[in-house]
C-alpha cells in the first residue's frame, strides 16, 4: 500500500469550465478517505483523475513516491470499484476475479490461491461457477470488490459502489467493506481507500476522515466527529448531520452589561459564556447554527427561548421531528417519542431553547464558522 497526494490539482474542460479548483489532499497509507458532496461537486471527477480516467489540467498526483500524472490507469497501481459493478457478463465469477492476474501472467497456483482467499474473505465461494446475470445486486457488488482486492493494488478507488442497492443491503455492505478494511489493517496489509459517495450517512459511518466538497473545492477535511461538532463553515454544517443543522439569520447584539444576545422576531436568547468569549465582541447579522438534537422544546413563555409556531410533526418511530416557524425562520427540533407532549399539534406555540454550548455562529458573507476562534479558551 502507499499514501496518496494531490497537489494543486485542477480540471478545466474544453469549454473553459473549471470543474476542480487547485485542490490539495493527503491520504495516508492505510487510510479510508471518503469524498462527499452534492451532485456536481466534482468528487467523481477527482476520483477519475486519480485513476487516470480523466487527464488533469494542472497540479500533481503522487501515489507513494511516484508522480503518476502521465501514467495510464494500468500502470498506477490502483483498482477501481464502479457503481455499475462492471463485471464481464460472459465470464463466470471465478474468471471475473482472476482475470486481472491472468493478464499479468501470474503463475496458475498463485491465481488459484488468490481466488480462494478472496472468495473466502467475501463469502462468495458458492458463487464461483455463476455468471453475473445469476447474481443479486449485493452478490455482484461483492464480486466487484473481490476483483479489486485480488490485485493487491496500492490504492483502492470506489465510485459510489452502493448507490444501486436497496437501503437494507446498503447498510449491510457498508459494514462488510469497513470490516474488510479493518481486517486487512489488523493483518498488516493496510488498504489505502478513496471512496466517493453523495450519501453523508455512508461518509460518516465508513470514513477515517472525510473530505467535503462543493463546486470543485474542498470545504473541510476532518474525521467524522470533528465535522459534526466543529464544522468549518455553514456549508459543511448544513451538509453533515440528519436532520440538517438549523441555519437561521439572527441579529447579534450586546447589552449594556456586556452580555451578548441573539435576536429573532423581537425575542433575544443569551449566548453561552464560552461562545461569547470566542466571538470577541462581534455584532450585527450572523447566521445561527444549531442541530435539531440540540434544541429544547419548552413553553412559549419560558426564559431564554425563541417563540415559534409548530408547522409539522414527523413521527420517526423512536423520535419526532418537530418543525416550527419563528418569524421568517424555520426550525427543526428532534424530540424523543417518550418525552413528546401529545397535546402539541400544528399551530401550537412553543419555545425553542438552543443548548448554549452547542451553538455555532457563521459569517453571513463568507460562511466561516466564527465561533471556532480561540476554541481552547
Descriptive overview:
This protein is of the alpha+beta class and 377 residues long. Helices cover 25% and strands 33% of the residues. It is built from nine helices and 20 strands. It has a six-stranded mixed β-sheet with strand order 6-7-8-3-9-10, sandwiched between helices. Strands 13-12-11-14-20 form a five-stranded antiparallel β-sheet. The radius of gyration is 25 Å and the shape is elongated. The model has no long low-confidence stretch (mean pLDDT 92).
Layout of strands and helices, then pairs:
Layout lengths: L3 E9 L5 E10 L4 E5 L6 H9 L6 E6 L2 E2 L10 E4 L11 H11 L4 H14 L15 H13 L5 E5 L7 H20 L5 E6 L2 H7 L2 E6 L2 E6 L1 H6 L4 H6 L6 E9 L5 E5 L2 E4 L2 H7 L4 E7 L4 E4 L7 E10 L3 E8 L2 E8 L12 E6 L5 E4 L14
Task: Summarize it.
The chain is 25% helix and 33% strand.
The dominant shape is: elongated
* CATH architecture label of the largest domain: 3-Layer(aba) Sandwich
What is the name of the CATH superfamily of the largest domain? Answer: P-loop containing nucleotide triphosphate hydrolases
Major sheet: 6 strands, mixed
CA-atom Rg in angstroms:
25 Å
Q: What is the straight-line distance between the termini?
A: 40 Å
The ordered H/E elements are EEEHEEEHHHEHEHEEHHEEEHEEEEEEE
Number of strands: 20
Q: In total, how many domains does the architecture comprise?
A: 2
Domain ABC transporter: 4-240
Family: Belongs to the ABC transporter superfamily.
Keywords: ATP-binding, Nucleotide-binding, Transport
Organism: Maritalea porphyrae
Features:
single chain, 377 residues, alpha+beta, Rossmann fold, OB fold (Dihydrolipoamide Acetyltransferase, E2P), 2 domains, six-stranded mixed sheet, five-stranded antiparallel sheet, elongated, NA-bd_OB-fold, transport
